[in-house]
Structures are given as C-alpha cells and as structure tokens.
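Entry type: protein chain
Record version: 2
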Amino acid sequence: MPRRVATVPLLGAGLLVLAFSACRYNPESTALAGPGWPAETWPVSTPAAEGFDPDSLAAIEADVAAGVYGSVDHFLLIRNGRAVIDTHYDRTYTLPSDAPDTTDHPYNYSHPNWHPYYHGSDLHTLQSVTKSVNSAALGIAIDAGLIPGVESPVMPYLQAYSPDVSDPRKAAMTIEDLLTMRSGIDWYTEGGYGNTDHSTIVMELSDEWIRYIIGRPMDAEPGTVYEYNDGASVLLGKIITEATGMRADLWAAERLFKPIGITEHYWKITPDGETDTEGGLYLKTHDLARIGYLFLRGGEWEGKQIVSKAWVDKSTAPVVADIAPANEQVNLGYGYQWWVPDQENGRATVFAGNGYGGQFVLVAPDYDIVAVFNAWDIDAPRTTWRLLQDRILPSTRR
C-alpha cells in the first residue's frame, strides 16, 4: 500500500483518493499567485487549486498504486512549484535466491544494497537520468568560461591517456557529438544489457573506464549518426574534471546541487577514480524534482541564474529531431543528454530525463508541470514513461 511522505497533509492513501473524488473539478479555479519554490520541502497544494481534474488524478494514482505501471517506488507531481501528488510506495527488494552473482558490487543490479536504493537510504538510483544532471553541470562549466564551447574537440581533454587518433574521425569528435549521442564511437548494444558482451557491461566491470571507451573503434563520422552510447556520457564527466580541476561529482555538488538546495546525494566512483556520469547518481525523489524544476524555470532559481537559459534551451531541444525507427516511439528527439518525447516545430512540448528501471523526470513547460517517477522494473515492460502525456496532461487546464 502507498504511504504519504511528510510533505503531504496527513491523509492515508485511501482517504486521499476519497478527498480527490469529493472535490469536483472547477474549470474556473485558479492556482495560487506566483510559482512556488521548495525550501527543505516542496510547498503543497490541491489538484483543484492547481487546475487538475481531481477525479482523473485520483484514478491515475490508484492505477499507479495497483501496479498498472509496474513497481513504482515514488510518484511526485508538481505544478506551479507545488506538490499535488507525493506518494511513496513500500516495496521489498531482496537478492533473488537464483541470482547468478551474489557479490555486493555497485554494478550488480540485483543487489538490494545498490538498487534501487543506496544501502537502505532514501537515495534512489537514477541510472541514465544521471546523464541529464551531468549535462547541467557541464553547461555550468561552459557558462563559467572553463570550457570554450560545445564545438571544442574531445581528445585534448584526454591527453593523459595518449589516445590513438590515427583515425581522423576520433580526432574530429567534439563535445556536442558526445552530448547528442553522435560520437561515432562503436558501442556494441546487441541483445541489450542482458548480453555480457554489451559495451556498457564490459565497461562497468573494467578497471579503466576511460581507456576502454577511447580504445573503442569508430564506426561513423562524428555528428552524423545517432547511437546511444553510455561511454560518451562518461567522457563528458571526464571533460568536466579536466576543465574545472574538480572531480565531476564534486563540481556538480558545489555548482549545481548546493545552489538549489540538494544536500544529500551519492555518486558511484569508478575503480580508476572517475565519476560514473553515465548512470551512477542517487538522489531523493524530491531532489530530482529540483533538477526538473530548475530546467522548467530556464535555469533560474529564486532570482539567481544557476545555468544559462541558452544551455537549458539547447539541452531540451530536439537537436536530433527524430530517432525513430530505431525506437518504437515516433517523434522522439534528443538534446544535450535530455530526451524530447514530444515536440512541435522544433520545440519540446515535453522533455525528460530517462533512466533504466523506470527513472523519469518529465517536464511540460506549457503546463508548468514536473512529474517524477522512481521505480525498479528492470525486466518488466510496464512503465510510466508516457503517463504524463497520455493521462495527466489531458486532465489539466492550462
């Protein structure tokens, strides 16, 4: 059964559904004046006050609680900076008795010490949403003038590894090529993450991640072919470290997390001392919402520009306009390590961070909405990926 967290009025989940149903949707209702901002917790409002149909939201939450969308750990819905749904679902995660590897290892995805929560805390794995957060940290470094721009070549930042640039395509690779998953680096993904030959699996079990990535051959001209590549995101973290003189996680903590009130996090560190910027970040659900809200507000936080609006706009635009048919969803785009699941005329109507197992931060700028889902469904097809567009937005008054 779901339980409410402390930031929501003290109602049981069942009582909350009844309260939603008893409050009829009033299309003339108006939200409280001005956007809210989280302090230690998010401000709380009601669905009706923020322009939702309460009956529709109650039905959505009931379906999430019933498992229609898989094993969701937390569902947080924010409009105008105020939480209207904030539900944690108690799940039991244990090591399967038939698990092939019972090692307590950060990349054993079956081990409950690491997935989905970090050692029993309320820090939840973000998996590839890490990429979106790291992109924001990179943008801050560019804003600060520590990196000339996204057109900068990658290899000068990796000179300590004496990269083989005999292939001119590798020498030509730029930061933007990494950001948009058009690196040109061959990344073997056939069979998905269940295949032990998958390049990401090989990398995660290796001792020298950077050396493994830059040792991969090229299979395309950089900037020309979209191919999802976890290694590209690791290289972005290394570039932050080289450019700022601070390891990427420490840079993000100081220049991104601290200014927006994120005080607790965990970030996996690779065996050779690099930040795992492809999937190693753990945040509380409420703090992942701060990242989404920062981008919803164009990089500004209570009057202070944390990351430039230009970076936010580029990051969340469909730079790669349509990556179908490689993906089943049509109209799917990709920006600077952010997904664009819906777009109109080159503009994102919804942008998102998307992580393995059901980690989503979904932002609908036209509606002033941030929705966050944390889950742990690494084998099941059920997902909340389209729940915002398919059910929440239709129940919303602009």
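Comment: The chain is about 25% helix and 15% strand.
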